[in-house]
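Quarterly update from the structural biology core.
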Amino acid sequence: MAAIGVIGSGSWGIALASLLYHQGNSITVWSAIEQEIEELSRTRRLKTLPDLKLPEDMIFTGSLAETMEQKDLLVMAVPSIYVRQTAARMRPFCRKGQILVNVAKGIEDKTLMTLSAVIEAELPMADVAVLSGPSHAEEVSRGLPTTCVAGAKSRRTAELVQERFMSPVFRVYTSPDVAGIEIGGALKNVIALAAGIADGLGYGDNTKAALITRGIYEITRLGTAMGGKQETFGGLSGIGDLIVTCASMHSRNRRAGILIGKGYSMKEAMDEVQMVVEGVYSARAGLALAEKHQVPVPIIEEVNQVLFAGKPARAAVNDLMLRDRTRESQDMGWEHLQ
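Predicted structure, tokenized:
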């Protein structure tokens, strides 16, 4: 049995806390919100996962010291916009070599840093890993078969994370490509917003397939320019996560996109979803990274126009369809066949 601290009590943090508990680990969950701690302790339920009953001996606390000290593993499950400030608060209680698994997805807007890089900057003594893939909290909490990938700089750390999370219903692969895993996990949320917008406009399966296919092409080109490996974007944290996020109503990014396609403003859509819509924050960062690395990302660019420049969603789709004619792959031409 391992002692595990979960930093963050949202849907994903609680789903993973339950998964890890049922594998025989002792679990302490931290929240910054006192009312949330009281409600979880009293009801043993989270409103966003109503079918999940949490065990009586799972600890909920507002003390980072209690959550972190004497723990074999820490799981960082706060929304991306709170990762830096939470990591800074964790510094006094983080020991050298502490394994910390980040499960949030996003890119820091102002610095364009991946979340693991943000955590390493604030907690240089920690051994930071990531866990990502097509894994909605609603299904993980119900014990439905799910697969993810654990990334770390060392094989030993990746395999330890794999061992801790692996179960009959939660299969974990390992990878050294931390950057690729994080880039795929962050940018798929932007494409999911586009897919939701298309749904809100009343477009069909053909449109959705086009957005997923061209979306993974954009993510792969930008991700490899940033140092990620092409194989990663064809895997669980790339195309796998993109498919599930674009297709499922569990996806808050897709749900927000649907509302925007129906005429809601970005703020109105986020208020209606009542959860952090990561794709809104990753959209600006994704476009800035594309400009920095000189990679064309027409879908991400049009999503930014709709979100931040007031461009009508239908006009954005029209402009995507009527762009200059080009080849499907810039890396393949007829000269290669001669």
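The chain has a mean pLDDT of 94.
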